[in-house]
Specification:
- By secondary structure, the protein is an alpha/beta fold.
- It contains ten helices and eleven strands.
- It has two domains: 101 residues, NIF3 (NGG1p interacting factor 3)-like (Udp-n-acetylmuramoylalanyl-d-glutamate--2,6- Diaminopimelate Ligase, Chain: A, domain 1, 3-Layer(aba) Sandwich), CATH 3.40.1390; 126 residues, Udp-n-acetylmuramoylalanyl-d-glutamate--2,6- Diaminopimelate Ligase, Chain: A, domain 1.
- Helices cover 36% and strands 22% of the residues.
- Helix 2 packs parallel to helix 3.
- The N and C termini lie far apart (47 Å).
Length: 263
């Protein structure tokens, strides 16, 4: 039997990704279109990872010589629209270069080892022990029990976020406060619903990427601390983990394409 590295076809890699990430069985928003979004017939020789399938990252992937781009936010978030301007240039590049795009949104958020939420817990020095925040019945977020000062947790979050050009925002809390249970939901994880859910599972701290203004106001009244560590920053982890896993399994190089938004 050939080793995985011997067959570098796009189809074999996509089959493994679909199975590992449970792409077909994980519900998601309509614009996600998880899975392979553009293809080609050439073997895969180099992988790139990025948070967004933007014109900038597509250009970076081509310059890097990648033939597979793994992203968290795919090509179709905005729904049906005229193919002109930057969108036309992006699709022209994809059609004129052997660059396949594979997108994984909620399947990647929820993955128990490669997912954004469990990896963010690890980046903060925490161990995820449970899941929470279901989307259509499927839990997406991670929960970690701990015993650290909130000041220390905020320091860790700021150190992490600053690597991706994000300034962390934190709701108010009393000096000497201890964080005991953290609910984690990367990306746009703060909402009225998620605040209520965090309180219901006994969390005293919520770590998210971003959220509406009212969530900071509501959190203070609920006694819940929210650490807004950056939408972009908190979603850099999963795509890198997946790209690394594929690169190791198929014995090809990979690289991460940074394109921070500051949000």
């Amino acid at each position: 039997m050939n080793s995985p590295g011997a067959d570098r076809s796009l189809s074999s890699i996509v089959a493994w990704l679909d199975d590992e990430l449970q792409t077909a069985s994980t519900p998601d928003y309509a614009g996600a279109h998880n899975g392979l979004q553009t293809d080609h017939d050439a073997p895969i020789t180099r992988i790139a990872a990025a948070v967004d399938a933007s014109l900038r990252t597509v250009e970076q992937a081509i310059v890097a010589g990648a033939d597979l781009l793994i992203v968290h936010h795919g090509l179709f978030w905005a729904g049906a629209q005229p193919i002109r301007g930057a969108l036309r240039r992006k699709f022209a590049l994809l059609l004129n270069h052997p660059l396949a795009v594979y997108s994984s949104h909620l399947p990647l958020d929820r993955h128990p080892t490669l997912g954004n939420n469990v990896l963010l817990a690890h980046a903060l020095g925490l161990a995820a022990s449970a899941t929470w925040h279901p989307y259509k019945g499927v839990p997406i977020g991670a929960v970690a029990d701990c015993d650290v000062t909130t000041d220390e947790l905020v320091r860790r979050a700021r150190t992490f976020a600053e690597q991706h050009a994000h300034h962390t925002v934190v709701t108010g809390y009393a000096p000497g406060r201890i964080t005991c249970r953290v609910a984690i939901c990367t990306g746009g994880g703060a909402s009225a619903e998620s605040l209520r859910e965090a309180i219901a599972i006994g969390a005293d701290t919520l770590v998210v990427g971003e959220g509406p203004h009212h969530t900071a106001v509501d959190a203070e009244e609920m006694g819940l601390v929210i650490i807004y560590a950056g939408h972009y920053a908190t979603e850099t982890l999963g795509v890198q983990a997946v790209a690394r896993a594929v690169a190791e399994r198929w014995q090809v190089p990979w690289s991460f394409l940074p394109a921070p938004t500051g949000l």
